[in-house]
Amino acid sequence: MTALVRALVKFERWDDILAVSNSMAIPWRDNPGDKQLRAFAETLAYIGKSNLFNARNRLKDLKSSLGMQSESAQPSDESWAIRVKAVEGQLRAAEGDLLEATRFLTDAAALEKTEREKNDYQDDPPSMPWAVNRLLGDIYLKSGENRLAIEAYEKSLTQERNDGFALSGLAQAHFALGQREQAQKYYARLIYEWSAADPNLKWLKTVKALGLEATPIADTIAPERPYTPEVLAKIGPINWQPYAAPKLDCIDMNGARVSLQDYKGTNVLLIFYLSDECVHCVEQLTAINARATDWAGKNMVVLGVSSASPEKNKASAKLGKLGMRLLSDHDHVNARRFASYDDFEEIELHSTILIDSAGRVRWKRTGGEPFADMDFLLQSVKQINEKASLQTNVAGSQP
Prior knowledge:
Layout: H1 2-10, H2 14-18, H3 32-48, H4 52-65, H5 81-94, H6 98-117, H7 132-143, H8 146-159, H9 164-176, H10 180-193, H11 202-208, H12 229-233, E1 243-244, E2 250-252, E3 257-258, E4 267-272, H13 279-290, H14 292-297, E5 300-306, H15 310-315, E6 325-328, H16 333-337, E7 341-342, E8 347-348, E9 350-355, E10 360-367, H17 374-396
Parallel strand pairs: 4-5, 5-6
Antiparallel strand pairs: 1-10, 2-3, 2-6, 4-9, 7-8, 9-10
């Protein structure tokens, strides 16, 4: 979720952030973390859409969720301090208060610098969509303060090397000052760094429109190996698509063979668990079983898979009475197919897998702990059904 929101904010996909009723809508969950992240993203989106009334209200929501009841209050979660100041600064700039905008952004940049020097700043992957100094550069550039913009962008490049957004700003600022040679230098670096970027990104188009001429220049610490979309496509699709689920061939408690073909036309929630001796596994399966009516209402069945024998599954006091079908996976053959077994460590892994009615894997979580967010699973299968219904309707409308 953090990565999704970061990307949408970074590339200013405001309509995607504000979407609520189509397939592109962000699948927000009903938890404090998502509510804060949503308020943050939607504040920026409303700023980008020039809806400053809604932007101010969403920022109030964010501050309230962080216990910031007064102007001088600090967020209850310190990790939000930089982001709140950065958003406030951008909103003040949109409202026309450049002095307060730069004050908030300068404070945020100072906090970021301190965190970086203390190695407390999360940079790999980054939690922030941008270096704050880049935002300062954007504000200065828009207001015509080109020398200040250059200073801010150059600082941001020491924090995020070869950042295309900063390189674009530097080319524009130098050009506005009549420094064509410098502008061409940054344009040359930009077209190298973004050589495989979408051609219609506004940061590229704006600089191209200046009429600069340049040959791509690599300003790097060491030689780089560029990864073009064509090369990456040989490894896998550029845009992720649901894929056909591996073969499932298990035995149920009564000795009957079970495969995914038995459930064609039905969504499947496939759970690989360790055993009834795993406390967390029992908690997960019990929680899933408690929502049996919800799953049935979404055309979904639940299959629990472990290495336990059919006899042990049937005799299990903890799991044997659950409504779901418990399956036996001899020698972890199926777990290996679904990447739910670590051959190096020779240990079983917890996996929760959503398979749609066409037999395609739509979502998967594997790790040391069972997945426990039932509301997320319910929302996900709801989206799967809505998309399947839409595709059916479109196919039915074809002549």
